[in-house]
Amino acid sequence: MRLLYVVPKIKSAGGVARVLAIKANYFVEHFGYEVHILSQNEEEGEPFYNFNSKIIFHKMTLNGNVFSFFTSFQKQINQKITQINPDVVLVADNGLKAFAFPFIVKTKTPIVFECHGSKFIEEKEQKNDLLSKFVQKLKYQFKDFGAQKFTKIVALSSESLKEWNAKNGVVIPNPVWIKTEATSNLQHEKVITIARNSYEKGLDRLLLIWKEIANKHQDWLLDIYADDVDFVEKAVTDLDINLKVNVFRFVKNIEEKYLENSIYAMTSRSEGFPMVLLEAMASGLPCIAYDCPIGPRAIITNAENGFLIPDGNLEMYVDKLSFLIENEEVRLKFGADAKETSKDYAVEKIMGQWRQFLENLVEV
Length: 364
Known about the structure:
Elements (H helix, E strand, L loop, with lengths): L1 E5 L8 H17 L2 E7 L15 E5 L5 H19 L3 E4 L9 H4 L6 E4 L15 H18 L4 E4 L2 H7 L4 E3 L18 E5 L8 H14 L4 E6 L2 H10 L6 E5 L4 H5 L4 E4 L8 H8 L4 E4 L5 H4 L6 E4 L4 H13 L1 H16 L3 H17 L1
Parallel strand pairs: 1-2, 1-4, 2-3, 4-5, 5-6, 6-7, 8-9, 8-11, 9-10, 11-12, 12-13
């Protein structure tokens, strides 16, 4: 089987790139599929994650005003589909242009939308005036309309699928890639988070929480792994919590870092199916997250393997994080349950679901 993935970027250290590396490698190495990946405006250099040498990379350049951008997008997409002749095209892009895909592509090949984020994801804070709300509503309606024109939507959880209200949807979660019996002993006085410095990831919210925690638990540290280290460090300095926060660049050996921490903290404003929660759980870390739309609630069972906090409730977040810090016995119980939860997302199990889905799609 020949697959073509269409993605915005593939060389970054983001979660979608991580998931795609896991799946593409598995397709090639275990199923013998031919995998092509088409990215947009990609910079030169090697990908952050390791991809099998048999995977074939393509890129297209998109620029100019809206009209020339979409004209170029349509032309290059159709050229690549004609050239590659895939059995299935998979679109893993949360951008608005992705929802135009079914209307601009000239092919009878099945087109699948891989939903890696909430329908309501926003890259910056939204204005509350009537015009902005109207534009926002139109945007969501266009997403709904476009999503239903794909052959299939693959959502990462039943909660995610509900957002789209689509009859062409199926649920296949992301797989967890960490395979280790090692588990953090949860004795480290450190909390970890891994996130791009973007509005939807909400690092600004975490730093406000940590300012409160730092005053109550002076021996504990927060480890942040991010892309824009300089910006995060400035934010830390502005809040005067330099001695309580360590900021690092993304690292490839992140599985080792989980084992050096005792709690995973997430304060995203929007999520799809956060890989970092699965990775942390596979390492035996209890997790705490805002109950944002919509990923954390698909993974965290409140008061069993972590805490889900009503979105934006800083006071409760501080209270529950303090509770985990102060209660080793609870940390250990939540951590053990988290480890068990991660087993439901074993890569062999999830990729078996993908194989069945794709091969049934092609047979039809």
